Amino acid sequence: MEENPAQKETLNEIIRSRRSKRAISEEELTETEMELLARAAHLAPSCFNNQPWRFVFVDKSAKLDRIKESLPEGNYWAKKASLIIAIVSRQNLDCELSRGRIYYKFDCGLAVENLLLQATNMGLVSHPIAGFDPEATREVLKIPAEFELITLVIIGKPGNPEELSDKHRKVELGEREREPLEKVVSKNEFDRSNT
Ligand SMILES: Cc1cc2nc3c(=O)[nH]c(=O)nc-3n(C[C@H](O)[C@H](O)[C@H](O)COP(=O)(O)O)c2cc1C
């Protein structure tokens, strides 16, 4: 499928401009801003409307500091976050269908994308990370053993790219990187050559 320049112009602007930015400032968010993020995430679709997502909002506190302390080196930039949102769920909160169609993480992903797009629309940086210490974070947030901590979303007001490592500054200011569309889209049947 060839990319049509005319279609580019009609891409939803918030989808187009969402980026996993890393330059954030320590400025805090308001309660209203945090509530808007939660409401946007909670409006996502889910299998049978099961709404398997549970969000733990962690703003300025000793707990936020403890999560930041446990972040790996590569996510140094997230230490400036004024808000970290933990996405928590459990398999049996959502559809478990034949052939391994287990939907709770899929539906949590939809909720996170809603959150990211809402954050983008509000001019905030929002960046999901898998690079965190699951044991330390679970302990800080008191997540019961039967729940999974799927991801953290780092949130903040935009900051200064000059404070990033050279590698990250280049990504921050560079073009979006994606596989060619024809690698991920096929027509009428699955294209094994794309795997
Ligand atoms: C589940 C998940 C985990 C991620 N983990 C990290 C991470 O630990 N550190 C990081 O800097 N970026 C992380 N990212 C961001 C991705 O690298 C980023 O989404 C990807 O490079 C595409 O860039 P874009 O979001 O700006 O389009 C993660 C993204 C997702 C969805």
Task: Describe the protein in words.
With 195 residues, the protein is an alpha+beta fold. It has a single domain (22-175), classed as 3-Layer(aba) Sandwich (NADH Oxidase), CATH 3.40.109.10. The protein is built from eight helices and seven strands, in the order H-H-E-H-E-H-E-E-E-H-E-H-E-H-H. Strand 4 (96-97) and strand 5 (101-102) form a beta hairpin. The model has no long low-confidence stretch (mean pLDDT 95). It binds flavin mononucleotide (FMN). Flavin mononucleotide (FMN) is lined by residues 19-20, 75, 128-131, 151, 176.
From the structure above, extract its key features.
alpha+beta, NADH Oxidase, 5-stranded antiparallel beta sheet, globular
Total beta-strand segments: 7
Global mean pLDDT: 95
Order of SSEs, N→C?
HHEHEHEEEHEHEHH
Task: Quickly give the CATH architecture.
Answer: 3-Layer(aba) Sandwich
Q: Structural class per helix/strand content?
A: alpha+beta
Tally of individual helices: 8
| Bound molecule kinds, no repeats | flavin mononucleotide
Low-confidence stretches: none
CATH topology: NADH Oxidase
How many domains?
1
The coarse silhouette is globular
CATH first level: Alpha Beta
- Rg over CA atoms, rounded to whole Å, is 18 Å
Q: Considering DSSP H and I runs of 4 or more, what fraction of the residues is helical?
A: 25-40%
The CATH superfamily appears as NADH Oxidase
